[in-house]
Amino acid sequence: MANFSRTWWGQRFLTAIEQITDPGRLGRGRSYARGNKVKSFIIKDGSVKAEVRGSVNPYFGVYKEPLYKTSIEFESISKANWAAAIAFIASKASLISRLMLNEMPDNIEDAFAKLDLNLLPHRDSNFTTQCSCPDWSNPCKHIAGVYYLLAAELDQDPFLLFELRGLSRENLQKELAKSPLGQALSAELTAQQTEPEPDTSYYTQPLTTSAPEIEQLKDFWQGEKRLPQTINAPPSTGVSGILVKTQGDFPAFWPKEQSFLAVMEEFYDRVRDKSSAVT
């Protein structure tokens, strides 16, 4: 499973699929996904369509490699249930803040469970699968292979979970922004994204001033007032992490397996501890 998904939401998706799918067919599906047998893969309007290369089997009269068409259509959550789910999410600062920062809360499924709903598939009725292959079992190994590629896509965009269940990322963000907490966070995000003001010069222009006349060098080096014996440390100021958090756990420029946000949190903690030690 780790070869196809490195995020917790992708792994939970695979765990949910493995609980309702035959292990043997999932094993063959992993081989298909690993062997690059999926030639095309498209996600659109809550459905997944793919073309998967089959196997040559002279025993059954298959002498040329076939190409099977597969589809996975997820059951959409009704508008009324989506409205209830959004209202509940919008009332929880820990959920709405992360979703509006393009992050997936690790307890998002608990929020749906409180409304007797589920975001991840929990049973066969949550989606419909079809394949043009002659295999009588559904899902077949070709569909199982598409499952694992879908988990890899979820790694890149966890909001596909919402889209597959009938709500696009744009509509989710729009509805969350209507709530009181969403309006406050939107105002903060807008303030952080103000356009820079252009300057008249690329370099700082020097300013000429007349030097004061000094009668003795001692006055120049020592000055009229002595420096204070002790210097008070400047007050600590909080640094907003919104710009960092908007990148998400695995932004495009981040090649490592560890979460980008986790690394940045550890980095800021170290800088804070060293600053405290200096002061």
Structure characterization notes:
The chain starts with 7 loop residues before the first helix and ends with a helix. A 4-stranded antiparallel sheet has the order 1-2-3-4, covered by helices on one side. It has 279 residues and is an alpha+beta fold. Helix 1 runs antiparallel to helix 6 and helix 4 (93-100) runs parallel beside helix 9 (180-192). It is elongated. It has 12 helices and 4 strands, in the order ααβββαααβααααααα. 20% of the residues are buried. The model has no long low-confidence stretch (mean pLDDT 82). A hairpin with a 2-residue loop joins strand 1 and strand 2.
Question: Main attributes?
Answer:
4 strands, elongated, four-stranded antiparallel β-sheet, alpha+beta, 279 residues, single chain, 44% helix
List the helices and strands and how they pair.
Elements: H1 8-20, H2 23-34, E1 38-44, E2 47-53, E3 67-74, H3 79-90, H4 93-100, H5 108-113, E4 127-131, H6 141-156, H7 160-164, H8 169-177, H9 180-192, H10 217-222, H11 242-245, H12 260-278
Antiparallel strand pairs: 1-2, 2-3, 3-4
Helix pairs in contact: 1-6, 2-6, 4-9
Average pLDDT score: 82
The number of helices is 12
- Biggest β-sheet: strands ordered side by side in the sheet: 1-2-3-4
Oligomer state of the chains in this structure: single chain
In helices, the fraction of residues equals 40-55%
Per the principal axes of the C-alpha atoms, what is the gross shape?
A: elongated
